[in-house]
Amino acid sequence: MPCLNLSTNVDLTGVDTSSILSEATKTVAKLINKPEAYVMIVLKGSVPISFGGTEEPAAYGELVSIGGLNPDVNKKLSAAIATILETKLSVPKSRYFLKFYDSKGSAFGWNGSTF
């Protein structure tokens, strides 16, 4: 159950968020080797963010997964999500952080139980 939470200070009004969600879903599923049906993407825009003392376009993300994460995968995910943010939202790669959490199934509730 990978879940990618993305927050940006970019206004998403008029932005094709469906294409961002779709591309991020495919990317996460492929790189973590999980079915797309289990991937969740949360995208929040217009979040007040200051990065390096400026409020120019920036983003912060957290990716939580039950397995599938390791230093090599994390590096690929960081690059791929940064590219999506830069291409779709004009967030420079240098103004984006992504934090990774590899968790146990018992730490996630789903379908009235845990994994």
From TrEMBL:
<comment type="similarity">
    <text>Belongs to the MIF family.</text>
</comment>
<protein>
    <recommendedName>
        <fullName>Macrophage migration inhibitory factor homolog</fullName>
    </recommendedName>
</protein>
<dbReference type="InterPro" id="IPR014347">
    <property type="entry name" value="Tautomerase/MIF_sf"/>
</dbReference>
<dbReference type="GO" id="GO:0050178">
    <property type="term" value="F:phenylpyruvate tautomerase activity"/>
</dbReference>
<dbReference type="InterPro" id="IPR001398">
    <property type="entry name" value="Macrophage_inhib_fac"/>
</dbReference>
<dbReference type="GO" id="GO:0005615">
    <property type="term" value="C:extracellular space"/>
</dbReference>
<dbReference type="Pfam" id="PF01187">
    <property type="entry name" value="MIF"/>
</dbReference>
